[in-house]
Structure formats: structure tokens, C-alpha cells
Amino acid sequence: MQGNSANRSVPDLEAVSKELIDNALTVSSRCTYNRALLCLKQFHQETFNQDLHFPVSIKVILLFVAYCFSKQLAASTITTYMSAISYEHKIRNISDP
Description:
0% strand
């Protein structure tokens, strides 16, 4: 990083933060995480007949894992989906269930 960060304004640092977050995932990972969140949203709508809101409760996550298992998704896919949910909580500055 060039220069002294103490001389940077909050908006400048926020812009750098946003850029870092935007580049934290590869394009492929971002697509995979988006697909995972879409699946979670669809599951929630179908199961509870309501839109998903964050933070996602532990109960909903457990039911979602069971749902994924019942659809015969690979364990690695389910693990990736859990990583996506965790990442989304962190990005939103919400405690990760």
C-alpha cells in the first residue's frame, strides 16, 4: 500500500475495503456462493412460505442441510453451501451461526 494510511480519509479507506471484499472471491467462487444462496432462498420460500432474512437461524440451517442431503447433494457441495452462508453473514457483519 502506498503512502501513510493515517493520511487517508474514512471514505478512501471504505473504498479500499469495498475493493478488497469485492476481490476476496474468485469469479467462480462468487458464482458458486450465489447459487448456494439462491438455493437457500428457494428452500426457505418453499418450506416456510416467506422470504429469507439474515441472520439465518441455526434451525433453518439444519433443515437446509437435511434438505440438501435429501436431494442427494454431495457432502462437498453441502459444505460449500455452508461456507457461502457463513461468508454472507460475515459480509453483512452478522454473527455466523
